[in-house]
C-alpha cells in the first residue's frame, strides 16, 4: 500500500521513480535521460533516510521498551531489521544475491509489461495499484530469505541511519562485511535483466504500429490522379489550339 500511495503521489511529478535500480534500467532501455539520474538518486536516497528517521522518532519509546535502549543487530532483542534487511542465518550470501536479482528482475519485467502501450496496459489511474500489487506479491513470495529489499535506496539509507542512531558498525560488518552490498548491487543487476528479458521475449516482437498500405487502393488512387492530370493537359492543349485558330481566322 505504501508503494501504491507513493506512485499515486509522484507519478505526475517524476514518473514515480522510487527505486534507483528501476531508474537506471529505464535510462538504459527506455530513453530516460541520464542527466536526471543523479538528481533522482539524491532524492531517492535522502527520502529513504528521512523515512527511517521518522519511523525511529515515532517508535523510539517502543524500541527502548523492547531492547532497554541497547540497540542490537543480531540476537534475541535485535531490532536493526526494522530498518534494513538481514538474511536468515541458514541462507548463504550467494543465494541471497540471486534472490535479489530474481526479485528485482520480476519487478521490472512486470513494470515493463504494464507500461507497454502495445500490451494490455491498464488505465492510467490503475497503474499505481498494479505496481503496488506487484511489490506486495514479490514480498509474499520472495521475502523469506532476506527481506526482499529489491531497492538499493530502501536498504542502504536506513542502514546508514541505524549506523548513526545507535546500532553501530555491525550494520555493515554483519557477516564480515559480506552482506550489506547484496541489496545494493543485486537489485541493479536484476532490474536491468528484467527489462531486457521482457524486451527480448515480448517487446521486440510487436508488429509495426505504422498503418498497413492498401496497395490496390493506392494504385487506383494514383491512376485516377494520373487520369485527371491527363484530362487537364488535354483540355489546356485544346484551348490553346482553339485560341490559335481564332487568331489565324481574324488575321
Give an overview in words.
- Helix content is 69%, strand content 0%.
- It has two domains: 1-202, Up-down Bundle (Glycerol uptake facilitator protein), CATH 1.20.1080.10; 213-250.
- It has 251 residues and is mostly helical.
- It contains nine helices and no strands.
- It is elongated and about 110 Å long.
- Helix 2 packs parallel to helix 8.
- It has helices spanning 2-14, 20-29, 37-67, 93-114, 127-142, 152-167, 170-177, 182-201, 215-250.
- Pfam families: MIP.
- The chain crosses the membrane at residues 39-59, 97-114, 126-150, 179-198.
- It is found in: Membrane.
- Its main location: membrane.
- It comes from Octopus sinensis (East Asian common octopus).
Properties at a glance:
single chain; Glycerol uptake facilitator protein; 2 domains; 9 helices
Amino acid at each position: 500500500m505504501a508503494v501504491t500511495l507513493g506512485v499515486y503521489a509522484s507519478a505526475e511529478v517524476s514518473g514515480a521513480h522510487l527505486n534507483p535500480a528501476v531508474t537506471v534500467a529505464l535510462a538504459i532501455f527506455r530513453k530516460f535521460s541520464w542527466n536526471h539520474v543523479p538528481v533522482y538518486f539524491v532524492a531517492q536516497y535522502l527520502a529513504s533516510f528521512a523515512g527511517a528517521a521518522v519511523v525511529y522518532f515515532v517508535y523510539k519509546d517502543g524500541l527502548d521498551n523492547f531492547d532497554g535502549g541497547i540497540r542490537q543487530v543480531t540476537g534475541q532483542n535485535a531490532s536493526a531489521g526494522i530498518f534494513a534487511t538481514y538474511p536468515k542465518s541458514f541462507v548463504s550470501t550467494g543465494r541471497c544475491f540471486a534472490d535479489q536479482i530474481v526479485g528485482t528482475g520480476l519487478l521490472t519485467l512486470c513494470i515493463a509489461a504494464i507500461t507497454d502501450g502495445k500490451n494490455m496496459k491498464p488505465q492510467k489511474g490503475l497503474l499505481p495499484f498494479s505496481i503496488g500489487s506487484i511489490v506486495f506479491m514479490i514480498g509474499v513470495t520472495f521475502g523469506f530469505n532476506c527481506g526482499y529489499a529489491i531497492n538499493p535506496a530502501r536498504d542502504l539509507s536506513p542502514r546508514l541511519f541505524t549506523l548513526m542512531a545507535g546500532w553501530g558498525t555491525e550494520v555493515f560488518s554483519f557477516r564480515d562485511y559480506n552482506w550489506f552490498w547484496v541489496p545494493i548491487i543485486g537489485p541493479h543487476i536484476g532490474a536491468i535483466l528484467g527489462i531486457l528479458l521482457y524486451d527480448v521475449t515480448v517487446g521486440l516482437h510487436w508488429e509495426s504500429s505504422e498503418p498497413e498500405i492498401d496497395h490496390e487502393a493506392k494504385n487506383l488512387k494514383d491512376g485516377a490522379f494520373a487520369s485527371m492530370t491527363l484530362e487537364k493537359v488535354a483540355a489546356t492543349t485544346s484551348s490553346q489550339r482553339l485560341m490559335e485558330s481564332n487568331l489565324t481566322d481574324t488575321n
